[in-house]
Amino acid sequence: MEIPVDSKSLPTSPKLLRRVSKQQPVTLPRFSPPENSKRCLQVPAFIICLICLNIWCAFLFIHSFHFCISSPKVDLYCISISTGKHPKLPADIGPAVPGGAAGGEPEHEWLEKEKLMDLEQAPKGPESAQENMKNLSESPEVDRTQESVELANRIEAQAPGMDRNQEPVEMGVREESNRLEGQWGIVAVQSYMSQLRTLAAKGAHVTGERGSCDGRGVYVYDLPSKFNRDLAAMCGDLLPWADLCKYFANEALGEKAEALGPRWYGSHQYFLEPIFHNRIQNHPCRVHDRDAARLFYVPFYGGLDVVRWHFRNVSTEVKDALGIELIRWLEEQPSWRRNSGSDHIFVLGKISWDFRRYDDRHWGSNFLLLDQMQKSFKFLIERQPWEPNDVGVPHPTHFHPHDDADITAWQLRLSAFPRRNLVGFAGAARKEESIRSALIEQCIAATPECRFLNCNDGGCMKTEVVVGLFMESEFCLQPPGDSPTRKSVFDSLVAGCIPVIFNPFTAYYQYPWHLPEDHQRWSVFIEEEEVRQGKVDVVERLRRVPAEEREEMRRYIVHQIMPGLVYGDATARFERFRDAFDIVVDNVMEKLVGGSAGE
Questions:
Q1: Where does residue 189 fall: left (phi above 0), alpha (psi -120 to 50 degrees), or beta otherwise?
Q2: 180, 234, 276, 591: least buried by Cβ within 10 Å?
Q3: Which domains does the chain have, with CATH numbers?
Q4: Three-class SS of residue 484?
Q5: Residue 489: which of 476, 505, 502, 474 has the closest Cα?
Q6: What does the pLDDT read at residue 49?
Q7: DSSP calls for 318-334
Q8: d(Cα 200, Cα 590) in Å, to the nearest integer?
Q9: Could you tell me the sign of the dihedral formed by the alpha carbons of 349, 354, 356, 362, in that order?
Q10: Residue 333 binned pLDDT confidence (cut-offs 50, 70, 90)
Q11: pLDDT the model gives residue 184
């Protein structure tokens, strides 16, 4: 019998594509000396074309290589070997990016060094990374778990004294170097996740008593309208092909989904910013005197700002402008200058990579690369795994309870709901290297045990259809989408469906405050490479999970995890439970009150 693996058996080496440091030599054909002087300059045209074609192919070959930090299928995790200099920002608001590498090293390697750093050297790295770690914990040292220590010792034993930044010469050495770098990267991610989990307040996942507001004031900035309200007013023009105005109904929860119940809405996956903003304005500890505040919330709709420029032909300066204006505005505020923003939080409704444009590509902004953004807590629906102050928070789902009674009623309904399908999968095919096509084929072949809802033909546009599929299924397949994370993971958990994860970056390394570390209690992990190579029948693997084990996992999801994954409505009040919003605010407040924001 095969059962889900524990966290120690997670894949510890994400695929890292090989790097090439030198252009491959081009061997030109040799020609015999001409038999007479009259023909010495006559070279056949096809030979000249062949030479040019050879040189051009070699150029493309070199420029096709990427160094990938986590997954080769996600372009945003990769740095091209041909990447040039990083764009310069205004001198007074520039990111903490090294201008070059010493010793003639390529400039793109600065990211590799920072992200795959030796844990022993982590606190001694670049100043911005050191300040980030100080902001995470009172201790200047990284809390190395026993697992991290064992892995570090194992790596050192396999390659004692190896300089991981040195370009390997032999192919076997290069492969070993890439493997070890991958292990170091995973160790760093696990260490950051461990640090973030230590900041969680009591009952971090679901329940907890309401505390006093003494010394815990929450201040909400009244920003100039261009940073939020004006962006919301552009709802009809944010995307060239869609009107998003209906999603601002009911205080940004979307239109009601009456078929599912009174607390269900057609919420948009990128509307976390207005949802969080509307809720925090009604926080019981909100204060209007900055001197009485301990926590400062900046209601910048940065995700909507990114969305409005995604598909428009504008310069990177235009895409970066609003974020830079916000920083300049904040720097004029005494409350920001007092602790350099370390007691401020930002909630952004897009993935971290959309705010970290490292090169001259036209996608996204550079907002999270700005120097002034390094000390604040950033909450995003997908975190950058190697940024300790990035915290992943759940995507907005369609369930927005108002009080404890709403959550309890939904738990009872889920517990009694019949599960007609063994497996459910709502999704659409992706590019060839994605495992989605393989999963779709396996699911269709296993009908009726596996039910596939094709999102390409509009089948996923209706909230009740998607939620209904998850409610009727025991397991829900959750392969990565355009990025590792997926809103569907949270939709399935809220529906009591056990998620099947294929990439640890989809959930395990993303949400330290909302998803328990012991992932085998609430999910099944199957290595995506096994699926891609046809080594595993996913439906058969899930079929072998005993019924009593499925029931125990579902009970744990419904009663222990689900309440902490949903966002209540704007005026929600919970006593027994804590929703996703409460967990964020309580945990940050615990950090600020228990530690020192100015460290």
A1: alpha
A2: 234
A3: 7-20+65-198 (no CATH), 217-376 (no CATH), 404-564 (3.40.50.2000)
A4: coil
A5: 476
A6: 76
A7: HHHHHHHHHHHHHHT-H
A8: 8
A9: negative
A10: very high
A11: 65
